[in-house]
Amino acid sequence: MNANDWLSSPAMGATTAPAKEILLDVRSIGHAYGSHVVVRGLSLSLARGAIGCLLGPSGCGKTTVLRCIAGFKPVAEGEIRLGGQVVASPGIHVPPEKRRIGMVFQDYALFPHLTVSQNVAFGLHGMPRPARESRVAELLEVVGLEASAAKYPHQLSGGQQQRVALARALAPRPDLLLMDEPFSNLDVDLRERLSLEVREILKNQNATAILVTHDQHEAFAIADEIGVMHGGEIQQWDYAYNLYHKPANRFVADFVGQGVFLEGKVLSPNQVRIEMGVLTGEIPRDCSAGCDVCGRGCAVDVLLRPDDVVHDDASPMRAEVLHKAFRGAEILYTLRLATGERVLSMVPSHHNHRIGEMIGIRLEADHVVAFRQTPGD
Fold first, then answer.
1. For residues 203-233, b (16+ Cβ closer than 10 Å) or e, as one string?
2. What are phi and psi of 135, to 5 degrees?
3. CA 79 remoteness from chain centre
4. What's residue 284's pLDDT?
5. What does the alpha-carbon distance between residue 65 and residue 48 come to, in Å, rounded to a whole number?
6. Mean pLDDT for the stretch of residues 207-234
7. CA dist 140 → 171, 204, 222, 271 (Å)
8. What is the percentage of the chain residues whose pLDDT exceeds 90?
């Protein structure tokens, strides 16, 4: 299945639901810096009240897409519709201030000489004073900073400053909120906690938003739908569960989550054999492309996630502990199989095995994630 198939079809495994109003509709847009194309044929749509995310490594074009949506960059091809209105195309460019879009920046961009309440009120100048004060008070309560209304940005922590920036962006009730790597300046623990808080705030305000990040944990914590980007294109736009368990291609499989590939042989349209045993499930179409009708005999690479390899002292299958990474409640083990192949296994941390120890493992995979081998594999 190619990226366009994923973009135009419902998420695999999703139940049918009533159609929602599409607020943002991006259709085959492109952008280039001179001869260097950074975004090509990119499409996505986002329903009103939904939170989307563009996830990908540095240089994949995700921030450029965000800036095209905001109006800071023109599009060389395609079009962007917001609430049914074309706001960007090769012949149309609605300026940013006319798009009813809010922005939350990586560096917060708060005004240092204004108090917290004044920062939040900044975009509400045309509103009568009582209504403006009411809106500011409402949002400061939503973000949990009502006690800090009179403070200045330098008196706040990084997480508090980010909440002020979010409140300021939400204050004018924009149709769409854009967030560009909003947590990258925060430490890991605060980033994870604030991600969950921001999702709750956005849902509380029924806001429609798009987040740009390279951190899949942030994407999973905040977004309803995620687009994995690579080379200026969306490789898969889907739910987090499907990105992890049903990746559209090898890049998505490698980028999302952890895992290793083991060589496998297709036995039938729903079975593939690997060193650890036989996996049963739907074999992706990519595996059987170019083979006979049932795909029997195809050489494939099968992705095993750490949760597919289960520690089991009673299992006759043994593996050697090569490395271990303590994760608190769990330990991520790197294990060597009899043939020398390596797999990962996430094990409760009370099973604390030493390096070089042989431990029992078994295969417990609910999904077959496999890709046809190509020359050079």
1. eebebbbbbbbbbbebbbbbbbbbbbbbebb
2. -65, -40
3. 23
4. 62
5. 19
6. 96
7. 10, 13, 20, 55
8. 76
Q: Taking the complete model, does pTM exceed 0.70, yes or no? A: yes
Look at residue 5 and tell me whether its pLDDT is greater than 60.
no
3-state secondary structure the chain: CCHHHHHHCCCCCCCCCCCCCEEEEEEEEEEEECCEEEEEEEEEEEECCCEEEEECCCCCCHHHHHHHHHCCCCCCEEEEEECCEEEEECCEECCHHHCCEEEECCCCCCCCCCCHHHHHCHHHCCCCHHHHHHHHHHHHHHCCCHHHCCCCHHHCCHHHHHHHHHHHHHCCCCCEEEEECCCCCCCHHHHHHHHHHHHHHHHHCCCCEEEEECCHHHHHHHCCEEEEEECCEEEEEECHHHHHHCCCCHHHHHHCCCCEEEEEEEEECCEEEECCEEEECCCCHHHHCCCCCCCCCCEEEEEECHHHEEECCCCCCEEEEEEEEECCCEEEEEEECCCCCEEEEEEECCCCCCCCCEEEEEECCCCCCEEECCCCC
Cα distances (angstroms) measured from residue 291 to each of 264, 274, 301: 15, 19, 15
* Rg of the chain (C-alpha set): 24
Assess contact for 265 and 273: CB atoms under 8 A. Answer: yes
